[in-house]
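Example 4.3 (complexes with small molecules)
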Amino acid sequence: MRADMRTQVGIVGAGPAGLLLSHLLAQRGIDSVLVESRSREYCEARQRAGVLEAGSVALLREAGLGARLDREGIEHGGIYLQFDGQRRHLDFRDLTGRTVTVYAQTEVVKDLIARRLADGGVIEFGVTAPEIADLDSHRPVLSYTDARGSRQELTCEVIVGCDGFHGMSRAAIPASALTIRERGYPYSWLGILAAVPPSTDELIYAYHERGFALHSLRSPLTSRLYLQVGRDEKIEEWPDERIWDELDRRFQLPGWTLHRGPVLDKGITPMRSFVAAPMRHGRLFLAGDAAHIVPPTGAKGLNLALADVAVLAPALDQLLHGDSSLAGAYSDTCLRRIWRSTHFSWWMTTMLHRKPGADDMETELQLAQLRYVTASRAAATSLAENYTGYPT
Ligand code: RFL
Ligand code: PHB
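Answer. The structure with RFL bound is encoded below.
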């Protein structure tokens, strides 16, 4: 069975980028349909980012999505960097006048889905075999099999690929039309979500001879912790007890205790820097992880995804009214921020992780950088400026 439908903007992927874009377009009176391969429950439970830049918070508030964020988000005025057996505080408020907010990506996604559905937005969860065709025409087509098994054909004016790094949209662009810049790292992050109050008032980024560790949080009752592990390690090799023991070793400080609790979720994520440009091919635009990913050390991925669609929504509004100037500038406008974040994330990552087989020279260089960034106000301000984010 085939149904023929129309919309102005077909969006692939109901992550933060696709959902916020659909909402921002609706606020401009532009109609969109979102197609998502997973179920609503899966999208709302997928554990990922936790830190929102000041600009992302402002963007969500301006879009009318700030109510629960303002009630439940936890404002943080700094981070700790731990190395040389000491924990040093970087005070972002003092250094830049800016803060970040801990509000989980799961909550951003729940807020966005609830709002789209309340506003009558169309989200097709559980689709399979999405395909993009006729990209070079003025009426590109997004076809997919819906959750009931019917093949659907959606004629659009524009299609936006917000389907993450492993999605299909980027692959719909001829390889010869994209320039890819990519770097893999020889380690991964093992992340846990634990039902235990955080053992710290601010995030701790710890450099340790056994590898990097990060103590983050989700709420006053829930902690989020990460360990650097080998590139090819399997989660089955990491029973909860082993994870807590390793976290203990890497965060250890005299007089400080890491509180343990039941592990609610755990997984391993490889680390990669990746940028595909340009983020547009004809009537197909890419946004968020579909076009670029950064290692999570700088807490930038979600913020970049939100920033992309904040640029894209007015550009599409103009384009649909016959003016292509903002749409023509979309890729270059976004790439400036993306490359700044890509550099910052690479810099944080290489400063804080132990490369397998690293020699003493490498270690001393990392420690010299960490000492400088915590001792020099100019260097600390640079880190703080990047971490709290760039103007939207
Ligand atoms: P998403 O969130 O990956 O959403 C893509 C959506 O597309 C769907 N999809 C498809 N749908 C239809 N057809 C297909 N063929 C499809 N293929 C995929 C997927 O199911 C999904 O729903 O991309 P988006 O919207 O661009 O958002 C990007 C962010 O998710 C990502 O950058 C961040 O999570 C990265 N990140 C962090 N970012 C931060 O800003 N701050 C952080 O503190 C932070 N911590 C993290 C992170 C990512 C992590 N992992 C697991 C990668 C910590 C971790 C551990
Ligand atoms: C998180 O809370 O998931 C988180 C925080 C900071 C990062 C990465 C992830 O740099």
